[in-house]
Design brief:
Elements (H helix, E strand, L loop, with lengths): L4 E7 L8 E5 L2 E7 L5 E5 L13 E3 L2 E3 L6 E2 L5 E3 L17 E2 L1 E4 L2 E6 L22 E9 L3 H9 L4 H4 L17 E4 L2 E8 L19 E8 L3 E7 L4 E10 L5 E9 L8 H20 L20 H16 L3 E5 L8 E5 L2
Antiparallel strand pairs: 1-11, 2-3, 3-4, 4-9, 5-6, 6-7, 7-8, 10-11, 12-18, 13-14, 14-15, 15-16, 16-17, 17-18, 19-20
């Protein structure tokens, strides 16, 4: 897992003025909205006796620990200890680590790291979100898999004819034409044309049986976002996924599916069902991959020409871990102090 990146950690609409617990990156956080409506993120641990702040309440812009009533502001500083009397002071170490947050694409993004604001990699763009003519639906999917395998699967062009032969893959035409990888800051994209199978279900009403090649674009953004663009001959669809590491064994994919056709609410159920089906087709394959994480050693697995864009992801991940030292582990000593981020080399 990596530090010094933004993570899409939660749906914006689900965060209110009372605490919400978040498990991500092998760590527990607490989220809530302050009096101004801004999302606040702190470690979910009171420095006094280690109680979970997410079990507490929020009042007056502060979060109150359920165990002894200690109150903390949005910056993580303790502002009240009810048991104190007279001139008793609040200990200087009565602090909880806080995290920068932003809201984009209907998600709360949380920055985990120690880079100055000007040096932080940007939140991945999704300019179609909220644009007139595009309909967006949200969903999520839980994997018992390492996030790196899930991310690579989201940009793997050659697996569709085999894993998705019952949905959109065409097993009769598995060839992947040579493509050019287009690098961009903290990621890359590639475009190909795939031969689609005859349409079925709702699609058979609007698509001809003899279909032109489907213009397909895949992209990734470090550390864990992928984007799939499909041009179905005048109808466009996008699946944007944030593949969030819960821990080393589990990944939660929060996804947005956008379409510029059938934009009425009547089509949302079908769109959600089809998107979910794609994840279900991928699930048994991805969860059975070994080793569980993508190897740092490029020679550990054999590569083909069609693997060009996943190899860019592997190189960038290795750069972050080995050259930049952005590996993440949590150091939580027994003393009452905020959790510290420590760089490791893996």
């Amino acid at each position: 897992m990596l530090r010094n990146f933004w993570y899409a950690c939660h749906r914006s609409a689900e965060i209110g003025n009372q605490p919400t617990r978040l498990r991500m990156l092998g760590h527990d956080f607490v989220l809530w909205r302050d009096g101004g409506g801004r999302v606040v993120a702190l470690d979910d641990r009171c420095p006094h006796r280690g109680a979970s702040l997410s079990q507490g309440t929020c009042s007056g812009g502060h979060i109150v620990c359920p165990y002894h009533g200690w109150a903390f502001d949005a910056g993580g500083a303790c502002v009240r200890i009810p048991a104190n009397t007279g001139d008793a002071r609040i200990p200087r170490k009565a602090l909880v680590r806080s995290y920068p947050t932003e809201e984009r694409h209907g998600w709360v993004w949380l920055f985990v790291g120690d880079l100055p604001e000007a040096e932080r990699p940007p939140i991945p763009p999704l300019p179609e979100y909220g644009r007139p003519g595009w309909k967006a639906i949200h969903g999520d999917f839980l994997w018992h898999a390492h996030y790196t395998r899930v991310v690579e699967n989201g940009m793997d062009i050659a697996h569709a004819p085999f894993v998705h032969s019952r949905s959109f893959g065409n097993p009769a035409r598995p060839e992947v034409a040579d493509y050019v990888v287009e690098p961009h800051p903290w990621g890359a994209s590639a475009s190909v044309e795939l031969v689609a199978p005859p349409p079925g279900g709702l699609w058979s009403l609007v698509l001809p049986k003899e279909r032109p090649p489907v213009k397909t674009r895949v992209a990734f953004y470090m550390p864990c976002c992928t984007r799939l663009d499909l041009d179905l001959g005048g109808m466009k669809m996008i699946v944007f996924s944030s593949n969030i590491p819960i821990d080393e064994e589990h990944t939660l994919t929060r996804w947005i599916m956008l379409r510029d056709f059938f934009t009425g609410a009547w089509a949302d159920g079908n769109a959600r069902k089809r998107t979910h089906r794609i994840f279900l087709e991928d699930q048994p394959i991805v969860e059975a991959q070994r080793p569980r994480a993508v190897p740092l050693d490029m020679s550990r697995e054999v590569h083909a020409k069609s693997d060009a864009i996943p190899l860019v992801f592997r190189k960038l991940r290795r750069e972050c871990l080995v050259e930049r030292g952005w590996g993440l582990r949590w150091d939580e000593p027994e003393a009452a102090a905020p959790a510290q981020l420590v760089a490791i080399r893996a």
